[in-house]
Design a protein that fits this description.
alpha/beta; eight-stranded parallel beta barrel; about 15% strand; 10 strands; globular
Length: about 280
């Protein structure tokens, strides 16, 4: 039987590995996420020139990528949900909704996406938010199977919002492994996982997923720290990463992409990645 899902996965992964640059932050409604994304057309053109494996976007901006002529450009990963857990002050009601309730992957099919991504939020004392995510995933999974669309699930274990004035990743291994396992049980083809507090434990996340695992990046950090963490997690079996602010908020996103690609696809060391960035 012809496997459409496998065809799309082949577009997303190069020799089994993937660098997905996330610029889908507009739906988070958090101003700090938009620093560096003011000129979306310029960002997309710069990233296409940098040539990551994929760019993660929402429907309303995806035309900027898909209208670029030619065959050699990054694959489109489309986010199809949105939520409000990202702001500095916790909302009275936390929610997560599909961007298209009736046909959740229709836009992705129309825009020739290689994959769709949806959140699985686990926040302290927010069971209704968690339930909404489960409902969202249950709805979209059936359409993904019907149309051969790979499903990336993003299990997010967060600390209480009050801790530092905004969402923070909880790096607890047991919580991450448990939520990743749930995401796989619900039908994930790809897992976009939190990094564990101890990077040497990340192989347990990979074991729980039983499908390709890409690690998520989080807020902007010093590049040496970013490359060091990424390298350690790649050594633990991650098949790549989905990084946003740690690419587009740095001075030269193209060189950050080049350094990450060397790490993911060629096994480059942290020092080599830094040299690629520094040499320009």
């Amino acid at each position: 039987m012809f496997e459409t899902k496998k065809v799309r996965m082949n577009r997303l992964f190069h020799r089994g590995k993937c660098l997905d640059v996330a610029i889908d932050h507009g739906v988070c409604n958090e101003p700090s996420f938009l620093n560096g994304l003011e000129d979306m057309a310029g960002v997309v053109n710069q990233l296409v020139d940098a040539d990551p494996d994929a760019i993660q976007m929402n429907y309303g901006q995806s035309d900027l990528l898909q209208n670029i002529p030619g065959k050699t450009k990054p694959a489109l990963v489309m986010r199809i949900d949105l939520g409000n857990p990202y702001n500095a002050e916790a909302h009275r009601v936390m929610w997560a909704l599909m961007q298209n309730e009736n046909d959740p992957i229709l836009a992705a099919l129309q825009m020739d996406a290689a994959c769709v991504v949806v959140n699985l939020f686990m926040l302290p004392n927010e069971p209704d938010l968690f339930r909404q995510c489960v409902v969202n995933i249950s709805k979209v999974r059936n359409d993904c199977e019907k149309y051969g669309m790979p499903l990336m699930i993003e299990p997010l274990v967060m600390q209480p919002n009050s801790g530092r004035g905004g969402y923070m990743v909880d790096g607890d291994l047991q919580k991450i492994v448990t939520l990743v396992r749930m995401a796989r049980e619900m039908g994930a083809d790809i897992i976009k996982a939190d990094p564990t507090a101890n990077t040497e434990d990340f192989h347990k996340v990979v074991e729980a997923a039983r499908c390709p695992v890409l690690v998520r990046g989080g807020g902007k950090e010093d590049l040496h720290n970013v490359f060091s963490k990424a390298h350690a997690i790649l050594q633990q079996g991650a098949m790549g990463m989905v990084y946003g602010r740690n690419i587009y908020q740095h001075d030269n996103p193209k060189l950050v992409v080049k350094a990450f690609k060397a790490m993911i696809h060629d096994g480059a060391s942290v020092d080599t990645a830094l040299a690629i960035y520094d040499r320009g």
